[in-house]
Amino acid sequence: MTDEFDQLGNLAPAPRASDAARARALAAAMRAFDETEENTARSKGSSWWRRQSSVLNRIWSARMFTQHRYLAGSALATMLIIPTAALLTFELTRGNLPNSGQVTLPQVLDAPKPAAERVPVPTVAKPPEPRQPEAGRGNDAAQTAQPSRQSDFVESDIARLLNKQEASGGAAKRSAAPAPMAPSPALAERAVPLAAAPRYAPTEREILPPLEESRDRFANADTSPVKSVATDPVSTFSVDVDTASYAFVRRSLLEGHLPDPDSVRVEEMINYFPYDWPRPQTADEPFRTTVTVTPTPWNSGTRLMHVAIKGFETASAAQPAANLVFLIDVSGSMNAPDKLPLLKSAFRLLVGKLKPEDKVSIITYAGNAGTVLEPTSARERDKIFAAIDNLRPGGSTAGAEGIDAAYRLARQAFIQGGVNRVMLATDGDFNLGVSSDEELKRIIEQRRKDGIFLSVLGFGKGNLNDSLMQTLAQNGNGTAAYIDTLAEAQKALVDEAGSTLFPIAKDVKIQVEFNPQQISEYRLVGYETRALKREDFNNDRVDAGDIGSGHAVTAIYEVTPKGSASALNDPLRYGPAAASAPIPVSNEMAFVKIRYKQPDGDASKLITTVVTETNAVRDFSAAPQDVRFATAVAAFGQKLRGTDALDAYPYRLILDMARNARGEDAFGYRGGFLDLVRLAETLDRR
After folding, report:
1. Do residues 388 and 312 make contact, with C-beta atoms less than 8 angstroms apart?
2. Class of domain 321-497
3. Taking the model in full, what pTM does it have?
4. Distance from CA of residue 540 to its chain's centroid?
5. Domain limits of the chain?
6. Do the Cβ atoms of 247 and 482 come closer than 8 Å?
7. Helix and strand numbers, DSSP H then E, in the chain
8. In angstroms, rounded to a whole number, what is the distance separating the alpha carbons of residues 567 and 648?
9. Tens of pLDDT along 388-417?
């Protein structure tokens, strides 16, 4: 390498470059510099929040992301600019570029310049603002009228600048200097005095793409409070077999952030998992009740009372024929990979599960409702698949009109003694026609009298109207699920099709009366949006939840025994004495009552269960495996929701509780739950 430099040094003096050659070389260097700056500021690939990256990348801190990106841009600029400038200088000194032997580049650089006329460069240049097209001109015209930043610094500007610099400070070196020329407006725009150019420090908002504002809507329900048995001994609520909340919480955590507390419905998280509760032996008993009392893991002064219901599971061959109407939202808001494309794949899975005697119809709505497929036998699968595959998004959302059309078609193909169900698939964005929750609720309540059930499947994020979906499902004798992956579609529509499609009981209500001689306080975990008035329990006109074939429903109460130091309410000074109870039942803790109707009935039936110490276990580790796992899920949901009772209870204990009760996990649901607890512990900085 030394010999090569010696040979270069022995070469004959290189001829001097011309002004034009220098101008061209400098213009090329400036273009390279500008391109480097623009490429550094421009984001690469997809927006960062849409990128399919790992969870660890998504939860990487914004500060580290900012620092690394900023340093990476500087390094890239350095690697590109220095070699380019070195090459141009070397070629100029060797004379390989055209020249007329007038002025050398060192002369120009060494020429003294008055301070007022210097063209300084700020220490850090702010990224250029995008140019806007001129009013009244098309894109092509605007591009012609507004040259790019690379072309602003043209060759003539460089020549004028060189001439001006030499005229002001280099007269002694040149006897015949051209008249000084003012730089072009484009150059003058760049020549900002250093004192007037403040150092630019990019903020995180400018460097990181701004997060899209989420328009997801959830019902805002306060967490169930602790109630005194002395003043409010009865708790009444509707059962809930929905699972939408768990799937939405899972998606939020996998995307690297904690879920909206209002999106966390603890009862739906508990009931997401299959449990092996004791089941009824015959269809004459639609479901069986099991009650277990255990110590509370997060509070030594209270106990947990699990009320579990297991529905009778009908054999596939004995299931009645189904008349299904797919009511599909194809509005413009459904144009996303996790919306209409996923929806189409989900319904293809469901159609593959149907029997030949089942019927399928398809109604779409976007601007107005339309019939895509008249009632068609499930044996004509190719015809149904073709109708699904041809769905395309576009237009506004006339949801109420679509619901009316779907119920008309369901009545048209009604199967007497069978299952008649509308399956609404949407992101919940109803923006034309009847759109208020109360008005849509009224429409659904009228339609359920025809014996037609409703299922609601939610898709997508950022525009999800979960509140409306819950309203429709709860008032349409139906269920609600959230489909975030094809695996979730497989679970909800195929693996659990019996419980999803075939009801065994409707308007199922639970009422628990606590004995003040044994229990001083209680708190229902979850079911905030399912609470009923005490008098609603015996009123058959009040709608409630439905249970499908083989469905399991679990409710958990945290109860405070009489005399416990954990009681939050003082005893009443003037309240009735416990001894005045008309019937001495001191050995009972609670009395559980369940009302239900047959799927085609109007009069309710009653099932009762007495809770005593025979239902209790002294050691939590001795409780049944499913009881312990359900408790872990309940603890996790309450912690995500921000329930005060779980503030001091760490995620690691929830994880240990769930891991020790995982048991058989054929589909991996419980293993996935363990992963979510680990993620939440990493993300939670409260």
Report:
1. no
2. alpha beta
3. 0.68
4. 38
5. 11-207, 228-314+504-564+586-683, 321-497
6. yes
7. 22, 16
8. 18
9. 999 988 766 556 677 888 999 999 999 998
